[in-house]
Design brief:
Blueprint (H helix, E strand, L loop, with lengths): L6 H22 L4 E5 L6 H5 L4 E9 L5 H20 L6 E5 L2 H7 L25 E6 L13 H13 L4 E8 L7 H10 L7 H9 L6 H19 L2 E5 L3 E4 L5 E11 L1 E2 L2 E2 L10 H6 L3 E4 L2 E4 L12 H4 L5 H7 L15
Parallel strand pairs: 1-2, 1-4, 2-3, 4-5, 7-11
Antiparallel strand pairs: 5-8, 6-8, 7-8, 9-10, 11-12
């Protein structure tokens, strides 16, 4: 069952994501955050972040494509509605019925309803104004259609167009399995052609040499770079946090990303040309991989070639002291760059 909660997923949501939401509210001077995402029938994120979220919340649920999927979708939407009511979260909540990719690309759902926070333009050109976008892609980053296009990738690009001019947090969770073929590897080979100083090509070679069972490392290297690229084109400054790998429902191998997107302004007006992020290619590749196992966050014992443990403290500076204190000592327990660990 997609979106089923697990001990690891709950720990990431309550420890990692909640800390980022709290930080974002403080630096953006927001009392509460508007929400767009995939809450699932158990609405766990809406419940756990209840005190942080504005009443304006838009959830998206697929209506299914086969008869069996459609029956299941009706049941899950009924559970979602019931759980919202029981948790006291029904007021202000909007449910859109469609694949989230279609909502992002088309600007409306299968019933013709549009996201609550839109600027009133025609659906294809409408801008959104959400503070938090939470996308949980149980099926992976991208699945090609008959033409070779990957709608989820196209939808992510469209998301930044929709949100242009409005700063937001993006939580992106994906299954490491997809049908992108060799595109991730091709992307990493493209990064390798850039001149980024000593050790750059060796580091990219390390990522490229990962086996099929280690695809999370390739995604860990490629996804932050891809998101930063499409964000900057839509005039955002992008800050990527360390990815978290974990085992989800039915032992699915998942990886969770978090991005802080600041819309660039000039003299109080939205800028037009490009956003320039503080992190560069090297900073993104140097991000550590974190694992969540049995509800505990720890730095992965295997990291990339040339990994510098000294960079880790700054990458988790938003966490509460107790969580950070438990996370950082693991770096000194054994050589995190060793090929033989894990």
């Amino acid at each position: 069952m997609p979106f089923a909660d697990t001990e690891n997923k709950a720990a990431i949501r309550r420890q990692w994501d909640r800390a980022l939401l709290t930080r974002w509210m403080r630096i953006r001077r927001r009392s509460l955050l508007t929400y767009f995402g995939l809450p699932g029938p158990d609405v766990c994120d809406l419940i756990d972040w209840k005190d942080l979220l504005d009443r304006h919340r838009t959830g998206v649920e697929s209506v299914g494509h086969t008869r069996r999927e459609q029956v299941k979708a009706q049941d899950e939407m009924g559970r979602l509605t019931t759980n919202l009511f029981v948790a006291g979260l029904s007021s202000g909540f909007q449910l859109l019925r469609a694949d989230v990719e279609d909502v992002l690309l088309d600007g409306l759902d299968s019933d013709g309803s549009r996201p609550l926070l839109n600027d009133g333009r025609a659906a294809h050109a409408a801008r959104f104004g959400y503070d938090l976008v939470n996308l949980d892609f149980d099926g992976g980053l991208g699945y090609r259609d008959g033409s070779g296009a990957a709608r989820r990738v196209a939808a992510l690009k469209k998301l930044f167009e929709r949100q242009e001019g409005h700063s937001f947090l993006l939580f992106l969770t994906i299954n490491v399995r997809d049908t992108m073929g060799g595109e991730i590897e091709s992307y990493l080979r493209g990064l390798r052609t850039r001149e980024r100083g000593p050790g750059w090509q060796k580091t990219l070679d390390w990522y490229l040499s990962r086996t099929e069972g280690e695809r999370e490392y390739k995604l860990k290297a490629a996804v932050p770079s891809f998101i930063q690229t499409i964000a900057e084109a839509r005039v955002f400054r992008c800050t990527s946090r360390p990815p978290i790998a974990y085992e989800g429902h039915e032992r699915a191998h998942m990886i969770h990303f978090a991005f802080e997107l600041e819309a660039v302004a000039l003299d109080g007006q939205p800028a037009n040309l490009r956003g320039f992020s503080v992190q560069d290619d090297i900073d993104l590749i140097e991000l550590p991989l974190i694992r969540c196992k049995e509800g505990q966050l720890r730095f992965a014992s295997r990291q990339h070639e040339g990994f510098n443990a000294a960079c880790c403290a700054a990458s988790v500076d938003f966490l509460p002291e107790n969580i950070r204190a438990a996370l950082l000592p693991a770096l000194t327990e054994k050589p995190v760059w060793s090929e033989n660990n894990e």
